[in-house]
Amino acid sequence: MITDADRAFLQMALDEAEHALRENTYPVGAILVDDKFNVIAQGRNRVHTNKDATAHAEIKVIREAGEAIFDAKIHNKTFTLYSSLEPCPMCTGGILLAKIQRVVWLLNDDLGFGAFQKMNDAAIFEAKFNKIEMIAEPDADLKNRQLELMRQWERNTNHVSNLRSAIHEGGEI
């Protein structure tokens, strides 16, 4: 179950995803919030913008949170990470290492690099996953907006399939 606050933070993540798409990069946004509903960090995917394969939205907010993450780990504070898309393997690893206790996302990514659920189901890091509340696709309207961003991304010139097509057609990147 999500609250009005959850919905507001998911909307913020979606706004970041829309901004990422306007920057011609993968449309993912993330917000990190503490247990008092203070925004600790917010960000968006910047892979193409920064030419950095690790510039994912979730990693950006974990990096930006910096000392707050360490303080939360020491004092057992609870953070919630809101993302517009299911975290990939790298971002899931970052979430586990940062000991974020709650993760909420708008759209599962079964066909892409979405890995949070798959890694959880594999029970490899069972003890860590057991400490995380996971909420997938809690809001149909916002989920559909993220799905539309993904459809727009498929047509973007920076989408990998379009980059490959350009090369095969004799173009340059």
- Roughly how many Å is the radius of gyration? 16 Å
Name the beta content range.
5-15%
Largest sheet: 5 strands, mixed
Seen as an oligomer or otherwise, the chain set is: single chain
Distance between the termini: 45 Å
Give the strand tally: 5
What average pLDDT do the residues reach? 89
* SSE topology string: HEEHHHEHEHHEHH
Helix content: 40-55%
Shape: globular
Number of helices: 9
EC number: 3.5.4.33
Pfam family, one: dCMP_cyt_deam_1
GO molecular function: tRNA-specific adenosine-34 deaminase activity
Enzyme class: hydrolase
Walkthrough of the structure:
- This is Nucleoside deaminase.
- The protein is α/β, with parallel strands linked by helices and 173 residues long.
- It is 50% helix and 14% strand.
- The protein has helices at residues 4-22, 47-50, 57-65, 67-75, 89-98, 116-122, 126-129, 140-155, 160-168, and strands at residues 29-34, 39-44, 79-83, 102-105, 133-136.
- Strand 1 (29-34) and strand 2 (39-44) form a beta hairpin.
- Helix 1 packs parallel to helix 8 (140-155).
- The longest helix has 19 residues, at 4-22.
- The termini are far apart.
Which features would summarize this protein structure in a list?
173 residues; alpha/beta; five-stranded mixed β-sheet; globular
Blueprint (SSEs and pairs):
Layout: H1 4-22, E1 29-34, E2 39-44, H2 47-50, H3 57-65, H4 67-75, E3 79-83, H5 89-98, E4 102-105, H6 116-122, H7 126-129, E5 133-136, H8 140-155, H9 160-168
Parallel strand pairs: 3-4, 4-5
Antiparallel strand pairs: 1-2, 1-3
Helix pairs in contact: 1-8
